[in-house]
Amino acid sequence: xxxxxxxxxxxxxxxxxxxxxxxxxxxxxxxxxxxxxxxxxxxxxxxxxxxxxxxxxxxxxxxxxxxxxxxxxxxxxxxxxxxxxxxxxxxxxxxxxxxxxxxxxxxxxxxxxxxxxxxxxxxxxxxxxxxxxxxxxxxxxxxxxxxxxxxxxxxxxxxxxxxxxxxxxxxxxxxxxxxxxxxxxxxxxxxxxxxxxxxxxxxxxxxxxxxxxxxxxxxxxxxxxxxxxxxxxxxxxxxxxxxxxxxxxxxxxxxxxxxxxxxxxxxxxxxxxxxxxxxxxxxxxxxxxxxxxxxxxxxxxxxxxxxxxxxxxxxx
Length: 316
Ligand SMILES: NC(=O)c1ccc[n+]([C@@H]2O[C@H](COP(=O)([O-])OP(=O)(O)OC[C@H]3O[C@@H](n4cnc5c(N)ncnc54)[C@H](OP(=O)(O)O)[C@@H]3O)[C@@H](O)[C@H]2O)c1
Ligand SMILES: [Zn+2]
Known about the structure:
Layout: E1 3-9, E2 16-22, E3 30-40, H1 45-50, E4 65-73, E5 85-88, E6 103-107, E7 112-113, H2 120-123, H3 129-138, E8 147-151, H4 155-166, E9 170-175, H5 181-187, E10 191-194, H6 200-207, E11 210-215, H7 220-224, E12 230-238, H8 250-254, E13 259-262, H9 269-281, E14 288-292, H10 296-304, E15 311-315
Helix pairs in contact: 3-4, 3-9
The protein binds NADP nicotinamide-adenine-dinucleotide phosphate (NAP) and zinc ion.
């Protein structure tokens, strides 16, 4: 029997544990991947904390921004070969074991083709942070020249700023404090709003009101105060996972014909592959801090306290 290193969570709210696990065998229709890079996403919190998400069984190996190479192919899988580089995204690491490990198993249907010109460490975060924000912006109704604000400059937010800029949108970054100002501007933000020293809604209204605000910060109060920053027909698109209620009065929506929408990408491989292609075309790349697998807990902790610039990736 052969073993691999993995990082797992044994109970909701439990710690990340570095363990030896049996290397899993691919069943019919599955492949085994030797993982080379896996991003650490705030979405891993549903496993770590045990959020309201169906289908999580423990112990669970998190990680859903995975790049690796096919190492073993199960019966009935066609069109793939040993040594081929592939990607896997959500719901790996949630409903089945994911990429915080040396090896993982997935259905061949989940595999994403990775363009040759993208390196593995930079491609990994595009499989969740990238596709989520690219897909949300692409479908938001914003047109070139429209004011689009990105709230939260973290893993998702820093990619969203780049996509918005490259889509020809007037791009506003919303963050707490001034620490991230310079980097946000380098990534393409034309306006930077510090929510600690200014009233974010008033600042957006000074610009004319946002057509779209993409909310990536997982905090219900920080999101509620954005509504008044929307212009006429403006839309608040929420990609952040938030547990608490958003406070909004009916007239805040009615008078400006505003709306609020949640967004998840379709889950189809096509949307992930479209994201990779656009990222190559428009030269959008994540800014990354790498960590060895053994330091998954540290990477997660730094992410949860918004200290990563801007995506942690485990290199395995
Ligand atoms: N819809 C989907 O399909 C989807 C996919 C992936 C992730 N998500 C969710 O999207 C959210 C963001 O994920 P991520 O990986 O980008 O997380 P992240 O890297 O931790 O970034 C979140 C950012 O939000 C801001 N923030 C954090 N806590 C805050 C608070 N208490 N008040 C105000 N702002 C706060 C911080 O930005 P500043 O320091 O700039 O303020 C932080 O960098 C998470 O809720 C995640 O679960 C959803
Ligand atoms: Zn994610």
